[in-house]
Design brief:
Elements: E1 3-5, H1 7-15, E2 20-23, E3 27-29, H2 31-40, E4 43-46, H3 47-57, E5 65-70, H4 75-87, E6 91-94, H5 105-117, E7 123-128, H6 133-138, E8 146-148, H7 152-160, E9 166-170, H8 176-188, H9 195-205
Parallel strand pairs: 1-3, 2-4, 5-6, 5-7, 7-9, 8-9
Helix pairs in contact: 1-2, 7-8
Length: 208
């Protein structure tokens, strides 16, 4: 039986910020959904083409060395993800915090971002309660593009479109399995360049 794709599914796709929809031979798109796709400018991608594109972007890790930082709210999750990445061969520099006692997130966001800025590491991953304050802090430094990712799509987009060199995660807002998926996608997604670089160049001008 074919899966019926209705206008509701397309509207949900748009609300998530996605502008691409993967279709396969087992899908049946209703007329209303087809109209919504056309009006909204959604790009239809065949399932095989999407898999090929994902595989090309995930040939290798884009980051071999990382700085890890967190405040007390992200301490436990930071340590768990660090162990997983180190087992996978990623070199992780942990700049703190080193316990769950109350501390200030800017101290660690700044240290991690500075390591990226000084090219001591390829990128950085920060953990706090929501993923928002550390991103705000890190983005104050020139050349830093810190992005808060809340699912695998946002992780993929911030790398492919925004060339994010700092990933920020809300340790209190997401489950550990979701966080593992976000980190994995972020590590393996390459920057696409092209029109996206033109947009980043406009952002970079603000730093001068």
């Amino acid at each position: 039986m074919k899966k019926l794709i209705t206008e509701r599914e397309i509207l949900a796709l748009l609300q998530s910020g996605n502008t691409e929809f993967v279709v396969d031979k087992d899908m049946l798109i209703t007329p209303l959904a087809a109209d919504r796709i056309k009006i909204s400018g959604i790009r239809l991608i065949k399932a095989g083409e999407q898999q090929k594109k994902d595989d090309e972007n995930r040939v290798k890790r884009c980051f071999q060395t990382l700085a890890f930082g967190s405040d007390h709210t992200g301490f436990v999750v930071k340590n768990e993800i660090k162990v997983l990445l180190e087992k996978a061969g990623v070199m992780v520099t942990d700049i703190g915090c080193y316990n769950d006692q109350s501390c200030d997130y800017p101290d660690f966001a700044i240290k991690a971002a500075q390591k990226v800025q000084n090219k001591e590491v390829d990128g950085a991953v920060l953990f706090d309660a929501t993923g928002i304050p550390s991103a705000i802090t890190a983005n104050k430094l020139k050349g830093i593009r810190a992005a808060t990712a809340y699912n695998e799509f946002s992780a993929k987009s911030c790398r492919g479109h925004n060339n994010a060199n700092v990933l920020v995660i809300g340790a209190k807002t997401l489950g550990i399995e979701t966080i593992k998926g976000i980190v994995d996608v972020w590590l393996h997604t390459a920057f696409e360049g092209g029109r996206h670089q033109n947009r980043l160049d406009k952002i970079a001008k603000l730093e001068h």
